[in-house]
Design goal:
heterodimer, A: 119 residues, mainly alpha, 64% helix, B: 198 residues, 8 helices, 66% helix, globular
């Protein structure tokens, strides 16, 4: 059944569900950032938020302290989180290079102006 | 009335900080402020990693994200922040549609998270009895291919060389090298060649 355990928030340990909630909020903020920002760097920041929310879920599902059954991801969750961090750094470097190139060629950073490929 | 369980207190401290600054990134219009809020949100997330027992990943989060990615982003912001690009308005219709879709997505995710009983956490006495494990050494061994945390895998097949993360580690390191060379090539200063044509 669906019930928010609000009664003993501070006296009981938190679980995976609380971590997933924080991760979901960061994920949704990142998705909305990608959808609504017109600045290309704002879209990049949205991507960073999405990746960070996913990472938080990996860590939560891999933690031995957060869930009552034995189906934890174990160290695999942390290893995948490390890979996600490294790939996010690589993606940020390439995307920034592309954004700077676009800025040098067109004199703007507004993604709504990047419509040359539009049919 | 029980006394306060301090890990929960710090979870809510860092969790609320991370959420508030993530929302700040979303609603702020100033690109410089967005970058600053993003730094704070990522740093608060590393606090959550420490609380979940992933101290090595938390340290990596602080060093790579907050130290590396943000330097890149802030340089990008500084290089492109002319007057007319610092404040860019979003169309009002976009906001309405985005909040409808985002609110629905958020509701579904949180509903799903709290409808699994095993995910709601463990008893306090049980949590206080759990041993504290260091994860840096098993993580390093896992990255070079030896899983010291799973010495006796239940299935025989993964022991033949795919049990560790050596191959993904090598792939990701070569990928990082290629990406950084490519980024440096893409972002280099162009020479003007028009003056030479005669």
């Amino acid at each position: 059944m669906f019930e928010l355990p609000l009664a003993n928030l501070l006296t009981e340990p938190v679980g995976v569900a609380h971590y997933v909630t924080v991760g979901a909020i960061m994920f949704v903020c990142g998705v909305l950032c990608m959808a609504t920002k017109r600045n290309a760097l704002g879209i990049l920041m949205g991507i960073e938020l999405v990746l960070n929310g996913a990472n938080l879920n990996f860590i939560a599902f891999g933690s031995p302290y957060l869930r009552s059954d034995a189906n934890s991801l174990g160290l695999d969750g942390q290893l995948i989180a490390l890979f996600v961090i490294v790939l996010a750094a690589a993606e940020a470097a390439v995307a920034l290079a592309i954004a700077l190139n676009f800025y040098n060629n067109y004199g703007t950073i507004d993604v709504d102006r990047a419509d040359q490929l539009q049919g | 009335m029980d006394s306060i369980y301090w890990p929960s207190f710090f979870f809510f401290f860092f969790g609320i900080l991370a959420c508030v600054f993530a929302v700040g990134v979303l609603v702020s219009r100033n690109i410089v402020r967005m970058a600053f809020y993003l730094v704070l949100s990522l740093a608060a997330t590393s606090g959550l990693f420490f609380l979940a027992g992933a101290e090595f990943v938390g340290a990596m989060q602080l060093m790579i994200y907050v130290g590396g990615t943000m330097v890149l982003l802030v340089f990008g912001v500084m290089l492109t922040s002319q007057e007319r690009f610092v404040d860019m308005k979003t169309w009002a219709g976009d906001w309405v549609k985005a909040f409808l879709a985002g609110g629905a997505l958020l509701f579904v995710l949180i509903y799903a998270a709290f409808s699994v009983p095993a995910w709601r956490g463990i008893e306090r006495a049980e949590a206080e009895a759990l041993p504290v494990a260091q994860t840096a050494t098993p993580l390093g061994m896992g990255l070079v291919g030896a899983r010291v945390d799973k010495l006796d895998p239940a299935v025989e097949a993964p022991r033949d060389g795919m049990s560790g993360y050596l191959l993904p580690f090598e792939i990701v390191s070569v990928h990082l090298l290629v990406v950084l060379v490519g980024a440096a090539y893409l972002a280099r200063a162009k020479r003007k060649i028009t003056a030479r044509i005669e």
